[in-house]
Design goal:
This protein is about 15% helix and about 25% strand. It is built from four helices and nine strands. It has helices spanning about 5-15, 185-190, 205-215, 220-230, and strands at about 30, 40-45, 80-85, 95-100, 110-115, 130-135, 135-140, 150-155, 165-170. The strands form two sheets. The protein has a five-stranded antiparallel beta sheet, with no helix packed on it. Strands 2-8-4-3 form a four-stranded antiparallel beta sheet, with no helix packed on it. Helix 1 (about 5-15) packs across helix 3.
Length: about 240
């Protein structure tokens, strides 16, 4: 790479990363399971009632758990339960689904894609909650993170329950100290959300670039910070 190109890259990076900032970042993982939705959309951080998992026909085959993203976050942290509920006035059976993030390390789960066949519902579902993008590919929560401890619940109506299973999820987690007044934009481009920054003021392009790279190498998980400080994870954001 030529000196001119390096200089241009540094200037562009410093423009995006103008100033110094401290950022706390929530986590993200990838998860999905059996699910269907329609009626009411609920997002809660309280514990939810357990529901019988609808299993049309044979029991689902046991799948090998995918590799964890880091040591503390895995796909099984997302729990999806589905159960029959009251039918519609015209007699079409109804079903309710609950999706819960039970990640114990405080990670957030995003970009949840579900294998859903030709999923459809006699009752309108908010597309921001659940929508079929293509055949056998449905998106949950519009791709946004499902925070740690939160539950999404949905209702849908169909003559039979759809078998749903996780096809793709994204997980990233931890606290991060990072430089750059525009770092939130960069993190969102990398699908890391819930970041906040405070500019301390530095007009040196190279300093901003170096500080940003150094800060990214210091990203840590909530659970690790909790152990170091000898306080519960909940105490980190109080």
């Amino acid at each position: 790479m030529s000196r001119r190109r390096i200089l241009l890259s540094a200037v562009f990076l410093s423009y995006l990363l103008h100033g110094m900032a401290f950022v706390s970042v929530g986590g993200v993982e990838v998860v999905s399971e059996n699910l269907d939705l329609t009626k009411t959309t609920t997002l809660s951080t309280s514990s939810h009632r357990k529901m019988l998992l609808l299993s049309p026909g044979k029991k689902a085959e046991t799948r090998a758990e995918p590799d964890r993203i880091g040591e503390k976050c895995k796909r099984s942290d997302i729990v999806v339960n589905q159960a029959a509920t009251e039918p519609m006035p015209n007699g079409i059976p109804g079903y309710t689904v609950e999706i819960t993030n039970q990640c114990m390390s405080g990670c957030n789960i995003s970009r949840i894609h579900v294998s859903c066949g030709w999923f459809s519902s006699a009752k309108l579902i908010n597309p921001r909650v659940f929508k079929r993008i293509h055949y056998d590919d449905c998106l949950v929560n519009n791709g946004k993170p499902l925070p740690y401890g939160s539950t999404l619940s949905f209702h849908y109506a169909n003559t039979f329950p759809y078998p749903l299973s996780v096809s793709f999820v994204t997980c990233s987690q931890g606290d991060v100290v990072i430089a750059g007044g525009a770092v939130k934009i960069l993190l969102e481009m990398a699908e890391v959300v819930n970041a906040s920054g405070k500019q301390l003021g530095s007009n040196n392009a190279l300093n901003n670039a170096r500080a940003t790279l150094a800060a990214m190498l210091q990203m840590r998980q909530f659970c690790d910070v909790s152990l170091d400080r000898a306080i519960p994870m909940e105490g980190l954001w109080k």
